[in-house]
Amino acid sequence: MELGKTYNPREIEEKWQKFWVEKNLYQAGKDKSKKPFVIMMPPPNVTGTLHMGHVLNNTLQDIYARYMRMKGYDVLWLPGVDHAGIATQNVVEKELAKEGKTRFDLGREKFLERVNEWVEKYEEIIKFALKRLGCSCDWSKYRFTMDEIMSKAVLEAFVKLYKKGLIYRGKYIVNFCPRCETTLSDEEVEREETNGKLYYIKYPLIKGGFITVATTRPETMLGDVAVAVNPDDKRYKNLVGEYAILPFIKRKLIILEDEFVDPEFGTGAVKVTPSHDFIDFEIAKRHNLPFVTVMDTKGIINEEGGEFKGLERFEARNLIIEKLKKLDLLEKVEDYKIILGKCYRCETIIEPYLSEQWFLSMREMAKKAYEAGEKEEVKFYPPSWKKLYDQWLLNIKDWVISRQLWWGHRIPIYYCKDCDNLMAEIQKPLRCEKCNSQNIVQDEDVLDTWFSSWLFPFSTLGWPDRNELLERYYPGSLLVSAWDILYFWVARMIMAGLEFLESVPFRDVLIHGLLRDEKRRKLSKSLGNSPDPLDLFDKYGVDGVRFSILSIAPEGRDIIFSVDKMKIGRNFCNKIWNAFRLLLSYVEENKVFKRELPYELELEDKWILMKFNETLNRVNSGLESYDYPEVAKIIYQFFWLNYCDFYLEAIKDRLKDIKRKEKALKVSLIVFENFLKLAHPLIPFITEELWHRLPFKQEKESISLESWPCVFDINFEKEKEEFEFLIETVNLIRELKGIYNIPSNEKVNVFIKEKKDKRFFELLQLLAKSSTLEVEPTENFLGYVVNGKELLVTLPMGVNIEKEKQRIKKEIIELKNLIKDLERKLTNPEFLEKAPEEVIRKTEEKKKIFVEKLNTLTKYL
RNA sequence: GGGCGGGUAGCUCAGAUUGGUGAGAGCGUCGGCUUUACAAGCCGAAGGUCGUAGGUUCAAAUCCUGCCCCGCCCACCA
User: Are A188 and A171 in contact (CB under 8 A)?
Assistant: First the structure.
């Protein structure tokens, strides 16, 4: 393949993506002598395609998978997809709605067939996208949360917890989504402040007069069973024990006292609706009040609602208000900010609803998970996220695990129709253990999706079977997750690990932010601000997108995303591509180099090797501390600023010289190869491609199987300094040329008052374009100080040297001020007494440098 | 109501753990380059009272306190 001027990733990506997958390159367990390293993939939902958040998440995982593999670990990165109960059921129901059908038209079995069709399609779409992203997963171990292996674990977990007494059934008030017609856990409800109204309603008293209650949801009044006031509220003392009459329904409502009521709010009197409000539910239990449910699962008023029966909840609200007005029972209406709970899957306003559900008792498990955090058995990066984790665990409530859905793991509870016996079994019992009846039915509900995902770290490995996989790869090592599922998933996985296998499922939790658009809104399909990653891959290359998103992601915080920023990575890949083209153009065909550094190295060689060592060390520590934006930055700067801008420019003369070419090529290629390895975890495709094209003998079939680079065993500290002086000198000349519009090929002569070897001047000439050494100039020159060394520069004819003198004068004034400041400091007895010796020494040195500089500038002015 | 994160150049962010280098980078802007790898490039310039008011200190972007903005999480004021 010809190397085009511009990097065209498409073909290259396809080639390697296929190669990696087909060769099963990343299958875990190939070499059991290696230490295992396990990365826990947050399984994407089967609901739709991959989005940019997944790209960031999986890129980070891939970086660690590839890095640890190169460091000699046996990496297991098991890919999975989540069945996403509510979400998937919703999308399939939406599809059905287009055909004018509901799931009830199809029936449970047919509906599930339909869902399975969807799943099969989207599973493939997701797998495809992950492969395209370059994820080095072990595809032979792919799992889906509804497949047999994982379902078995779900049932096992349920039965175990049930038999331990942690799972219980009860009639409680829960969050209910009337659109999805299912329960939601507290975590699945998103709260949002909205402009609402506070209605003041007068309830007539039996003994005459009224008591006014305030409510934001008047329709729930149909289910009122009492009115509550604070025991300390003197206003209502005389009414306690009396009765009010509920308008429309004519129910007698007792007026009672409850600590909970805040006398400051509203009228200080609260209507009590036990079936439709969390607090009222508690009050009712305390006072033994009856429960009156006035809505069905769709949010429609039922027969308890009398004349309002059949109305949708908000229609009922409006009608009730209207009628109250007519009856003169509506005292007033105020604007009021209310916090509404919404379904996290469909944004419908949730309804607190009294129903029979299955709960998992969390207290004990949460305590253990909290302790594991305290003992640092699991660590969060950045560590500030631990606070949130703690906060949730310490205030945990029991988990509603039943869902009134069809798509999911059906609850393994069986009822005997004949004797009401209840059995929790993995397989349907043939007979009732009590009455021997065969008339047995399974619970209709399914389990919360998260009840399967929380087992992911071990259910994917075949738990509850004690097998080799589980023995070897549990507990895992690293979890990379966005912060929004810290509660849903991360904390629960830790609890599950401790509960079922007595150890935390992973040591490190790397938390990253959510992607937002420039208006700080979350990227979402419905807002239309969420670009399709596959489109971006086409436009900017997979590596380009991977690299860009890493560079713009601040550690642990949300990321302001814009398509335009994808250029960062694309341009970087292009730069790498072209640097390679340059090198390769000097390599003769079929020439193979040995990976040995030449004995004699030039100044620039020594510098770039030193720079590489420095870069490697920084990349290592960046990766170890999960500072991924820093890693991207270091790699970018090394390659662009050091390797391309200076090193490659510096060896150009040698490359063109037949006699000196070989050594220059060798060093540059060796550094290039090491750079490719360093960058490979971040940008796997281009590095793989170029690595194969390097004129070295490659033992391995992929760069990803190579070992991670180690530092060159060299120490050229002096040469490094020398080269840095050279860079500064070059910068000075470039600056002068820039300011005075001196064409770059015009000569600017530099005289350095210090012996330099020949190569130094060659490089100066090369890098500053045609500036050359002369003997000490006698006229038309100015003095400068670079890195403490004195140089004389003559400017070409035609340059307004007076202007330059003005510029230098300005600098002199600045310098004088600085020196004055330093002097003040150095004559301050307190400073001399209290500041550390090192600081004083440095200050003195600095002053000395400034003074020397000042002298030089003045001397030649 | 409780808690967390943030406010540094036009924009996006480093620097803050451990106070001491003339406050940095990328993008954007402006000016100059057909320089034989790359215009997705090269060279240069301009641009900052480090949110604000105090305090501690010889010395504060950095530590402490108050305040002001912005974002988020949790919470039973109907």
Answer: no
